[in-house]
Amino acid sequence: MPATDSTGDLLMVLARTLRQRYGAALAEWDVTPGQSRALRTVVELDGARLSALAEQLHIAARSATEVVDALETRGLVERRPDPADRRATTVVPTPEGLRLRGLLDDARHAAAGELLAPLAAEDRAELDRILRLLVDAS
């Protein structure tokens, strides 16, 4: 583990480790972390326009298009006309996308659980509380 000088450094090391574990967990399904996030977001939004997806993922619209193209090629999402605006398109999950999303979520939770396993239940609850404070303040 690299030398760390601050809480921020420790958070960065932990975030990098968690991203690596997530990537390894998702590799079984040949899905990148970005594709997994996009699929999860499409499911949570119950379909979304590309612009809304890009905004939710904090990525450029062009990047959202590329991610959706990759998910669509795999049969995990499909584009449909927006019922509220015929000129617009929404992205919706396919049944296979819904199935895979569940598997990916399970894999991500398992990877996080392994990383956090050294913590006692009380410590994990306290960590969750502190992280929520920081997320809410940002």
Rg computed from alpha carbons, rounded to a whole number of angstroms: 17 Å
How far do the termini sit from each other?
Answer: 27 Å
Beta-strand content: 5-15%
How helical, in percent, are the residues? 55-70%
Number of strands: 3
Indicate the mean pLDDT: 91
Shape: elongated
- Report the major sheet: 3 strands, antiparallel
Describe this structure in words.
The protein has 138 residues and is α+β, with helices and mostly antiparallel strands. It has one domain: Arc Repressor Mutant, subunit A (Orthogonal Bundle), CATH 1.10.10. Helices cover 67% and strands 12% of the residues. The chain is built from 6 helices and 3 strands; from the N terminus they run H-H-E-H-H-E-E-H-H. It has helices at residues 7-27, 33-44, 50-57, 61-73, 95-116, 121-137; strands at residues 48-49, 77-82, 85-93. Strands 1-3-2 form a 3-stranded antiparallel beta sheet. It is elongated, with a radius of gyration of 17 Å. The model has no long low-confidence stretch (mean pLDDT 91).
